[in-house]
Amino acid sequence: MKNLIKCGIILLFALLIFWAGYTVGQNKTVEGLSDEGDSITFYAQIKEINGNSMLVSGLKENDVNFRSEFYLYITSNTKLEWHFTDIALSDFVPGQNISVTFSGEVQETYPAQIKSVNKICLLDDTNPALDRVETSSVKTYYMIADELGKTEQSLPYLTLLDKENFVFSYDILNSYIPTGTYEIADGELVASDKEKSCQYVFDVVDKNTLKFRKEKSADVSLIRKDMEIEITDGALFEQKNSEEKR
Taxonomically, which superkingdom (predicted)? Predict the structure, then answer.
């Protein structure tokens, strides 16, 4: 009888260990990624979009845990932005670079799955909203990277939307992009960002070329200097259309 009770206890103990292991396996998350309640941001490139899900590939600049592929699930609570401008899921296309902010668990499948996506920001210098604007008066000046002896990546650019409004993009990882009004006088183009109470100054070299005046302008430092091209004093910006830039 004692042996029977002993065997029963051993069997019960073994079943408890098996159940615990199964439960842990079912709820396994990627180690070190996110505890419930935390918010984490990483950077990725869109590979596929299917309905309300998005397959992305983490950029090499991320922590090692975020360099693989992830499935993102977009819900009505997921905020979609391009530099503080709300956009729709239909404005995203494969090949674009994004930042992903999420909380909660990451399901360790392959690709890993993130179901609590708080925000997705489009980082590219393409603004989906601009495609819906009359572009006949739009002029975009891209910084000449070769003159600085650097490899072309995502170029800083200044866009003049019309005769008085501008967009100035110099850091795709910065969540804020300067916008406002500009004026040209005495050979200078002065772009004033009213929200930040600052300005960016360019010498007008000719109708297609501007020269950045760093000493007269607000700070344009990069968040990650290893990822992008830094604007130096005297950097030239040349007007090009999108086809020429590519």
Answer: Bacteria
Residue type (1 letter), 108: E
For the record, the structure tokens of 29 come out as: 């998350």
DSSP string, 178-233: -EEEEEEETTEEEEEETTTTEEEEEEEEETTEEEE-GGGS-----S-TTTSPPPPT
Q: State how far the Cα of 182 lies from the Cα of 163, in Å rounded to an integer.
A: 8
89-100: per-residue pLDDT in tens? 988 989 899 999
Long-range contacts of 49-56 (CB under 8 A, 24+ apart): 49/89, 49/92, 49/93, 49/94, 52/89, 54/92, 54/120, 55/111, 56/98, 56/100
State whether the Cα torsion 80-86-90-95 is positive or negative: negative
The count of other CB atoms within 10 Å of the CB of residue 40 is: 18
The SS3 call for residue 243 is helix
Instruction: Specify whether the backbone of 74 is left (phi greater than 0), alpha (psi in -120 to 50) or beta.
Output: beta
Domain limits, the chain: 1-27, 40-122, 133-245
pLDDT tens digits for range 44-82: 999 999 989 999 999 987 888 899 999 999 999 999 998
In DSSP terms, 185 is beta-bridged to 188
CATH numeric code, 133-245: 2.40.128
Check: CATH 2.40.50.140 for 40-122? yes
**Is the model's pLDDT at 3 over the cut of 60?**
no
Assessment of whether the complete model's pTM goes beyond 0.70: no
